[in-house]
Amino acid sequence: MVDYIARDGVALLQVNNPPVNALSHHVRVAIEEGLKKAGQDPRIKSIVISGKGSFIAGADIKDVSKPTILELCDLIESSGKPVVAAIKGFALGGGHEIAISCHYRIAHEKSKFGFPEVDIGILPAAGGTQRFPRLVGLEAALDLIPSGRHIGAAQAFKLGIVDKVVRGDAVEEAVKFAKSIAGEPLVDRRTSQRPVMGAENAFLAAAVKLAMKKKKGMIAPIVCLSVSFMGSLLPFEQGIQVEAAEAVVVFTSGQMGALQYAFFAQRAAPKWLLPCGASFKTVKGRPIRNAAVIGAGTMGTGITMAMLNAGIPVTLVEQDRKFLDKGVSLLKLLYAGSVSLRKITQDQCDAILSKLNTAVGYKSLTNVDLVIEAVYENMALKKQIFAELDRICPPETFLWTNTSALDIDEIASATRRPDKVLGTHFFVPAYHMKLLENVRGKLTSAETVASAQMFGTRIGKIPVVVGNCHGFVGNRMLHKYVYEADFLIEEGCWPEDVDMVAENFGLPLGPFKVRDLSGLDIRVRGLLEQAKAAGIEINPATRFLNGERISLLSKSLVDKGHCGRKTGRGFYNYGKPGGKIPLNDRFIKDVIVEYCAERGIERRKVAYQEIEERLFLPLINEGFKILEEGIASKPEDIDTIWLLGYAWPRHTGGPMYYANMVGLDKIYNRICHYNELHKHSAHWQPSLLLKKLAASKTPMKDWMEVAQASSKL
Ligand SMILES: CCCCCCC/C=C/C(=O)SCCNC(=O)CCNC(=O)[C@H](O)C(C)(C)COP(=O)(O)OP(=O)(O)OC[C@H]1O[C@@H](n2cnc3c(N)ncnc32)[C@H](O)[C@@H]1OP(=O)(O)O
Asked: Can you tell me where the transmembrane regions are (predicted)?
């Protein structure tokens, strides 16, 4: 766990606890023993702490036994012999706190520093809130601690975290340095004994404002700020007491459990399992050496960029030279933007673009491992493209379709290789968003799934395997939320009432601000297509489609030319086309009132609780249906999809975790209540799995036992 290597008067304590050298119980004990042993050995004059591979990524989140990291930090700092931290890789959380308790820090130029504690719902409670401001000053501490972000060695040096940045072996350099300072006095090297520079109120106000915006609804960042600030006014020992007292508040808030669940859920989600039993453990994917993307629109160019960024050569294909050129210009513009923002250098940009090829038509696609089709959502068009690709591409080429809802089996039916067809649901912008829903059809092979998961990870996504149904996991659940949002308006709410409740819950934007952003006409088009497919002609009086309640409120606004931000008016008034600030609008309220009057809908005052329940319970209910149907293979997959794809508030863990936290019996009972009131909305019919879990009082994590025990599921 910790190797003790004594050489030339220096004791090197090297943490060896793969994969990330987390400070689990055994590591803490071994560091403590190593420090004591080195302290007692008269031949040892100085000590170096390092990690094998990387430094230390923090506390082991699953293990909080003694000795605490705080005790360890105090032991290090009070050592009579100089202690040097040799840092490569990550010095995060408790690892960072260990580093700043050492008397000196030598870091490799590629090492990273940070306090990610706030993102897992805790504080740097091993003295970090007190030592860090004493090391870097209050302003920098109030910036870094609540942000949870990592910084590089160069910035760490600038801030005074690191004493020296090296290109070569940090451990060798640290050992050399440790030897050179043997016997030197350490008084001014003990961070806890320094005063806090720049302890000013103004920093606190600005930092609180920023944290409330960037970490909306999260308690830990705000508590970190107050503890760090208070500590700057107190002697170190008293600051540590404040830190300990406030840590208890945060640890018992409920957010810690949710955030740590989210951390592990995100790491569990790519680990796939199919109903046939094949899994990431049993089936290997085929690496993708080169690829083609069909369609140079927003999605196609975004997907192309995601692959280019990962070093995969891509041919971007269009049927028309004009569209191709437009897509390539957009792509080049985005890369130029990255260069001017210094996210990449011009050389890196040139290297990326050297892997881009373009083609008009599919003829050249005779030697690609993968084709991702990303044309607009039209089944007939997609089938035609797949039939053609099937003729041209080698039989082993994977043919994947980027779609947010369409039937993968139907698209696959246009080919002679349905086993190699799969849906890749990328999120906009595809080069940035972390989520990738990999949709398996009935005939998609396990090898194709394995390859898609491997591909997803390679291009920097969190890939989650889902089954084939309308909207897959994310959009299928989202649709229920969107429907209820409309019904709430019909029944008496204003758009701002509904948006406020959603935003208070933790979503960045409420459903109507989102719709204004994406365009009301998009939703109306979808609705009309659905009606057409059902052979129903929509007229102003239509309130049901296939027996299901629908709302045509968006259509009423679109008919008046109000399509959202792009036209300056949607559910809000933006002042001008392309305006960004939503204002409540009497005109829109008149449209809503008129719409309701025409349909004889009586408007009423809808309570806050009802708005919240009607937005989120149908979505949660759908999540349980998705589990019982095997569309998702575990609740963690659903939660990951919502956390990464739809900005669900992380401190509630995701919709499934949230339901469990509220209580599955309570959730079930409320769904039943609304099911009685809203017989024309199938999304209120309670999930059988949820019913069983609620009745048996089984927590969500044990859902599989209930699902397997029930013959009805
Ligand atoms: C708990 C109360 C203690 C009170 C004292 C308070 C003071 C100290 C607090 C802390 O230190 S809290 C922890 C702070 N550190 C973190 O949050 C870091 C979390 N880890 C990461 O950000 C990343 O893992 C990484 C270090 C940047 C490496 O990323 P990479 O993509 O290379 O690997 P991952 O897939 O993320 O992880 C690999 C493997 O390791 C597991 N793991 C990672 N970190 C921890 C951890 N801190 N504790 C336990 N396990 C950890 C992760 O789940 C992966 O496991 P598998 O999925 O492979 O099983």
From this structure: none
pLDDT cut 70: percent of the chain above it: 99
CA of 352 to the centre of ligand 1 (A): 31
Q: Whole domain around residue 658: which residue ranges? A: 608-711
Q: Are residues 141 and 197 in the same domain?
A: yes
Q: Which residue in 77, 109, 117, 491 is the catalytic one?
A: 117
Dihedral sign, Cα of residue 379, residue 385, residue 391, residue 393: negative
- H or E segment to which residue 142 belongs: helix 138-147
Judgement on whether residues 625 and 591 belong to the same structural domain of the protein = no
Q: What is the pLDDT of residues 514-567, one digit of tens each?
A: 999 999 998 788 788 777 877 878 777 788 887 889 899 999 999 999 999 999
**CA–CA dist 627, 438 (Å, integer):** 16
Cα 139 to Cα 126: distance, rounded to the nearest angstrom: 20
Q: Are residues 462 and 579 in the same domain?
A: no
**Any idea what the CATH number is for the domain that residue 8 is in?**
3.90.226.10
Summarised one tens digit per residue, pLDDT across range 341-369 is 999 999 999 999 999 999 999 999 999 99
Q: What does the alpha-carbon distance between residue 405 and residue 475 come to, in Å, rounded to a whole number?
A: 7
User: Are 472 and 631 contacting, i.e. CB atoms less than 8 angstroms apart?
Assistant: yes
Distance 15 CA to ligand 1 centre (A): 15
354 plus 433 within the same structural domain: yes
**Residue 221 and residue 147 share a domain:** yes
In terms of domains, do 667 and 585 share one?
no
* Contact in structure between 406 and 428 (CB atoms under 8 Å): no
* Residue 257 maps to a domain: no
Q: How far is the CA of 255 from the centre of ligand 1 (A)?
A: 17
Which pLDDT score is estimated for 64?
A: 63
Instruction: Answer yes or no: is the C-beta of 110 below 6 A from any ligand 1 atom.
Output: no
Q: Does 674 share its domain with 533?
A: no
pLDDT digit string, tens, across residues 194-248 = 999 987 778 899 999 999 999 999 999 999 999 999 999 999 999 999 999 999 9
Residue 90 CB–ligand 1 contact under 6 Å: yes
Number of domains in the chain: 4
Q: How far apart are CA 554 and CA 567, in angstroms?
A: 14
**pTM, 2 dp:** 0.94
Confidence (pLDDT) at 8: 94
Ligand 1, atom 1: closest residue by C-alpha: 61
Mutate to test the pocket of ligand 1, among 21, 56, 61, 259 (most ligand atoms within 8 A of CB): 61
Tell whether 451 and 518 lie within a shared domain. Answer: no
Q: pLDDT value at position 655?
A: 98
